[in-house]
Amino acid sequence: MSSSVRKQAIAAIAAAACVENEEVKELAITEIYGQDVFSVKVMKDYLPKDTYKKLLSTIRKGVAIDASIADDVANAMKQWAISKGASHYTHWFQPLTGSTAEKHDAFVEADRDGAVIMNFSGKNLIQGEPDASSFPSGGLRATFEARGYTAWDPTSPAFIKKGRNGATLCIPTAFCSYTGEALDKKTPLLRSIQILSEQTKRLLKCFGEDSDEKIVTTLGAEQEYFLIDKRLYMCRPDLIQTGRTLFGAVPAKHQQLEDHYFGAIKPRILAFMTDVDQELWKLGIPAKTRHNEVAPAQFELAPMFEELNLAVDHNMIVMEVMRQIADSHGLVCLLHEKPFAGINGSGKHNNWSLSQAGRNLLEPGKDPHQNAIFLTTLCAIIQAVDRHADLLRVSTAHAGNDHRLGANEAPPAIISIFLGDQLTDVIEQIEKGEAKSSKAAKVMQIGVDTLPPLPMDATDRNRTSPFAFTGNKFEFRAVGSSQSCAGPNIALNTIVAESFDEIATVLEKASKKDFNKTLQVLLQGIIKKHKRIIFNGDNYSEAWLKEATKRGLYNFRKTPEALDRLMVKENVALFEKYKVLSKAEAHSRYEVFKEEYHKKLKIEGELALNMVNTMYLPTAASQMNKLADTVAKLSSIGIKAGVKELKASIEEIGAIIGKIDAAAAALKKEVAADKPAKIAEALMPLRKAVDSLELVVDDSILPLPKYSEMLFIY
Length: 714
Ligand code: ADP
Ligand code: MG
Prior knowledge:
Helix 12 packs across helix 15 and helix 12 runs parallel beside helix 16 (515-530). This protein has 23 helices and 18 strands. The protein has 714 residues and is of the alpha+beta class. The strands form 3 sheets. Strands 9, 10, 11, 12, 13, 14, 15, 16, 17 and 18 form a 10-stranded mixed beta sheet that branches. Magnesium ion binds at residues 222, 349, 475.
């Protein structure tokens, strides 16, 4: 019966694919861009001049918010939102669940005469009290004092979220407990941005730069995803419940011809992308690039980079908009890191940099002074990443990403830095160089020499490195496609802040005369000590695994061992020192992430058993039954030809059933024992046995869509 559902789905997709092209509408991009955002432009129109100025200095310069302007701002937001059709507002926040949260309140209030007033006060804007007792807190908030509160983040603008027949004003907020502990991802992110900014200013001051221009951490988050037809998706309980296929054999043709990457985009997908871009532009999200990715049915969207906090919020919105628009196109957007085994997974390339007044600190400079700042920043990052590679790894550790990192696919679980040949050469020169004499050939005198021109050539980039310097930014590629970028950037900001802090502490003591010499010696020391983290070769190779082990680099293959690093004394102390996470907050996060991993694996284990019992074993039985019937009939009329072969097929399927049964029994034991890492291991042999069944069973009785259908029929 269900196999006919699968066939019907395929027939319907084939028929739908024949629709005529729609007329291309002319799009007034400049008019729609940002139309659903309470942007600086809108603020200027709606706010009293004084209020506008104060709010702008908070947004642009990071000046603390003046609470007295809240009523004015709330009123303006309300007027604007109502003009956009909004009936409700919500504090929009990012609990530790991995997605965003919202609880809507109507502006509507009745007065004594029963007439309606539309109310939204400064207090409503600044603080909310979602009764959020069911969000994970890792023990931070006992349920009897469950009320957390949300606090307005004026640096990320409010926006309108449209539904089918209404709209809601969304106000980005942080989410904390009443004792001030962070219960979300935004709070520590903002703290890490703050500390990095302070330490960057200190460092720049050492170079004689004492500007009060804001330090801006920037992020461009490239987003990979899969799209499959919703009708096929609906036939796959594993995709519905876990976001990935627990079973499914790799088809004959998958990605080996490399004909999908950057290929011509199919009309149905392009229609989806066009709608996504437009929705994002309306929300002021600068969607820029769209293309086919390596795997069939895999795609990428990249926005222009923005300020980190805003870019993290925007990426959360990007994922939500993609899911919604996909649905309206009869598609499903899969954001799981590995929806299809044996096929490329999806990541999120976290492009990160630092700038001040439009000057990018990771951009090689044009004069010795700028070069010195660039090289110092670079060496600081090398030191930070080598020292705390474990924390970067932790920040990407979750059940979905375990199928990418440390599996047969890159980037590997070993964190290393790609610098490229030219820059590595410069680093080697600094390492060789002696502060006193420059006799050695090709020695870089910091503060004296200029850098050779470094190529910013895309073709030359190493695609296998988890942490690559790409001309004017670092690209952290281990981040998973479904993940919030908050965690990885919290880690990155904090470890770089520590590095800047240490370097500044040394440089602050140097006299003006000795500055260049001190810096040279300092950077030389850093390079000597931390150059083991630099690797420009193929990160996917066996040779690198061996070499990395020899160099003593961390290699945490799976989530549980990676997460344990969060609890290491030095790491807890680091977050505590820079006031990014208190001891209790770090501990609570560890508990939450561990539990999430646990629950996800348990769901996968239980569902796999369920699918085996209710779908695969019955299919195998009915196949055996069909064959046995045929054999009996043939024998009854005295036919010998083919009987032996059919009997062998029955035996083969019987043997597969035996394997499935044994693997399922083993999995069942681990599920009962509640051991997540063991469940992950036990899922593999079960999958192998089930996938071998798919290859021998009659296609017309197979209930679940195959990889060849999901990946190629849309
Ligand atoms: P790719 O890595 O695919 O070759 P690009 O180099 O074009 O792509 O850029 C990838 C992303 O890096 C884009 O989102 C881009 O906006 C972002 N990016 C560029 N410069 C910076 C920067 N200074 N800081 C952060 N992100 C940046
Ligand atoms: Mg990239």
